[in-house]
Design a protein that fits this description.
Elements: E1 3-9, H1 16-26, E2 30-36, H2 41-51, E3 55-56, H3 60-69, E4 76-80, H4 86-95, E5 99-102, H5 110-123, E6 127-129, H6 137-147, E7 154-162, H7 173-178, H8 181-184, H9 189-205, E8 211-217, E9 228-234, E10 240-246, E11 255-262, E12 265-270, E13 276-281, E14 287-290, H10 298-301, H11 314-330, H12 341-359, E15 365-366
Parallel strand pairs: 1-2, 1-4, 2-3, 4-5, 5-6, 7-10
Antiparallel strand pairs: 7-11, 8-9, 8-15, 9-10, 11-12, 12-13, 13-14
Bound molecules: nicotinamide-adenine-dinucleotide (NAD).
Residues 8-11, 14-17, 36, 38-39, 60, 80-83, 85, 103-104, 130, 132, 173-174, 177, 192 line the site of nicotinamide-adenine-dinucleotide (NAD).
Length: 369
């Protein structure tokens, strides 16, 4: 039996809601049956009708209450609204006893994120945060290789997540709320894409930096949040890192790249060519590892759907999170390697530390918490 999904946000003209809808369907585990797709009830209704969604609600609060009361109510809700609405919506559904699959970052404010921890614990329901890049097969393999010591002792972690779509003062739905601190949070690029890079590095290395020094800039005149961030990282293990997040890096589309370098070997993976990863053992020629190819790890193979040489990417990586969410809900079990509240809180602490450090002239700042 498929599980029943509801959605908050993701109405007509929205971006990520459509991606969640495709991802949820790929493995046939979910059926989308309910939604409060927009804050405008009329738009919510027309969007739901266009998608053939049976139950449309005028507000998320009404939806949480009504779905909790139905015998055939939703098993989980997908939250795909701008950042400031993540916590209020998540709280309403968790308190109604419904599992939550929420997009990142966890919140627009650290204190809201911290308050959610207690709500989630009390509810006993699962909370999954869609840091979708952790669903790629070669990222699962990279995590396994680092854990198995194939790179040796980690020395360097370099993360780039650079785009150019906010190079000029931008208009349009997606740009508008992302550059408004009230809806996006005080972090701009650092929150929108920096948190993805941060989580990806944590996921692969299993380590969280202890301190950072950040230089945040807003290059576009009048923009109230950063559009470029250079961040240096220090790990308790002695490893060093750098994270560059930018939305004004002309010539870059969705250039997320992770390099992890140890004293025995290194890995290099880029999201725009996700079916390959470079692995080098010190002193030996570079190897190109392929998704599903010879030498693919068990963790990587568990996430693929088509044989080696048949490209998979963004939608499939996202779908892996939906498949694993379904498995966790059915098994009434932990969420395994799926990102959740812990990742969300770490991301919020990262944004907070970057803001504090940058305001203090780039001073080395502890992560806190
Ligand atoms: N994981 C990823 O790769 C990824 C990519 C893009 C966006 N995101 C995240 O997804 C979220 C949405 O981003 P987007 O680009 O799709 O934004 P968007 O502006 O395209 O869509 C937001 C939607 O939320 C709706 N909405 C706003 N308030 C609402 C409310 N109170 N009730 C119901 N619906 C409401 C809007 O009407 C709109 O349909 C953000 O948190 C963003 O950070 C994640």
């Amino acid at each position: 039996m498929t599980l029943k999904l509801g959605m908050v946000g993701g109405g007509e003209g929205a971006f990520i809601g459509a991606v969640h809808r495709i991802a949820a369907r790929i493995d046939g585990q979910w059926e989308l049956v309910a939604g409060a797709l927009s804050s405008d009830p009329e738009r919510a209704r027309s969007s739901a009708a266009a998608l053939g969604i049976k139950r449309s609600y005028d507000s998320f609060a009404q939806m949480a209450e009504a779905e909790a009361a139905r015998e055939d109510g939703i098993d989980a809700v997908a939250i795909v609204t701008p950042n400031h609405m993540h916590v209020p919506v998540a709280r309403a559904f968790l308190e109604a006893g419904i599992h939550v699959i929420c997009d990142k970052p966890l919140a627009s404010k650290l204190e809201d994120a911290l308050a959610l921890e207690e709500v989630a614990a009390r509810s006993g329901k699962l909370f999954i945060l869609t840091h979708n890049y952790s669903g790629y097969p070669l990222i699962r393999q990279a995590r396994e290789m680092v854990a198995n010591g194939e790179l040796g002792r980690l020395r360097l972690v370099h993360i780039e997540y650079v785009q150019d779509w906010l190079t000029e003062a931008a208009t349009g739905k997606q740009a508008e709320w992302r550059t408004d601190p009230a809806r996006s949070g005080a972090g701009g690029a650092i929150g929108d894409i920096g948190t993805h890079g941060w989580q990806l590095a944590e996921f692969v290395t299993g380590e969280t930096p202890a301190a950072l020094a950040a230089d945040l800039t807003s290059f576009v005149e009048g923009r109230a949040v950063d559009d470029n961030a250079h961040v240096m990282l220090r790990y308790a293990s002695g490893a060093k890192g750098m994270l560059w997040a930018s939305q004004v890096a002309v010539g870059n589309e969705n250039a997320l790249r992770l390099r992890v370098i140890g004293d025995k070997g290194s890995l290099d993976w880029a999201q725009e060519n996700p079916n390959q990863m470079t692995f080098t053992r010190f002193g030996q020629p570079k190897q190109i590892l392929t998704r599903g190819g010879a030498g693919a790890s068990e963790a990587g193979l568990a996430t693929i759907r088509t044989p080696a040489g048949h490209p998979e990417g963004y939608l499939e990586g996202f779908a892996t999170l939906y498949r694993e969410a379904a498995e966790a809900i059915r098994a009434k079990d932990s969420t395994g390697v799926l990102p959740g509240l812990k990742d969300g809180l770490s991301g919020m602490r990262f944004i907070d530390a970057c803001l504090r450090s940058s305001q203090d002239g780039g001073k080395w700042t502890e992560l806190g918490g």
